[in-house]
Write a structure and sequence with these properties.
By secondary structure, the protein is mainly α. It contains ten helices and two strands.
Length: 196
């Protein structure tokens, strides 16, 4: 453990103090944090392991937890820095949102930000069309299993149902009201694996 390294242990390890701090600040056990750290360090392809390693967003997107998620780029964008890199702390923050003990409000705020493609603080009709298209895509392709007309119709129906004040856009409060009526909402932000 600690910072020692052996031939069997090619990657850096977390110190005892770091593990204690991470278990205090996140919903994860010591074992889960060590496992995440091992996975994260494997993304470092440099000759010497680096404690301050920052992973490229596209490498993080290939991890099993995100690989099949149609919003993986948006999820990572929220947690990555402006150059599309993530530290291990950023990665743990991201993983915390998927934990069952993460509050529904935190999940809701992150979901809203992920679905707000134009980053204007509201979900508009274009945002909803993009959400529907991603939720109905085929595997890794951007091809939807429903027609463009069906995407538009579905987005219009969502807008009609969620836009309680008829403003032509959905606020976070309206989104919160909708998700409170949807028991499956939490499943969208869980670590359950989806097959691609």
């Amino acid at each position: 453990m600690g910072n020692s390294q052996s031939a069997c242990e090619p990657y850096q390890t977390l110190s005892g103090n770091e593990l204690v701090e991470f278990t205090r600040l996140t919903p994860f056990s010591r074992f889960e944090i060590e496992s995440f750290y091992d996975d994260f360090q494997k993304l470092d392809h440099s000759a010497q392991p680096r404690r301050n390693f920052r992973a490229r967003a596209e490498d993080v997107a290939r991890l099993p937890i995100l690989k099949c998620n149609p919003f993986k780029d948006r999820i990572i964008q929220i947690f990555a820095d402006q150059n599309s890199f993530l530290t291990f702390e950023d990665f743990l923050d991201m993983m915390s949102v998927f934990h069952p003990r993460c509050s529904k409000m935190v999940k809701l705020c992150h979901a809203f930000a992920i679905y707000d493609f134009d980053n204007d603080g509201y979900l508009g009709s274009e945002d909803l069309k993009r959400v529907v298209k991603r939720l109905t895509h085929r595997g890794d392709s951007s091809e939807s299993i429903i027609t463009q007309e069906d995407i538009v119709t579905t987005a219009e129906r969502l807008m009609k149902e969620l836009d309680l004040d008829n403003s032509g856009r959905i606020s976070i409060e309206e989104f919160e009201y909708f998700t409170s009526k949807s028991p499956d909402f939490a499943l969208l932000f869980s670590t359950r694996q989806k097959t691609c």
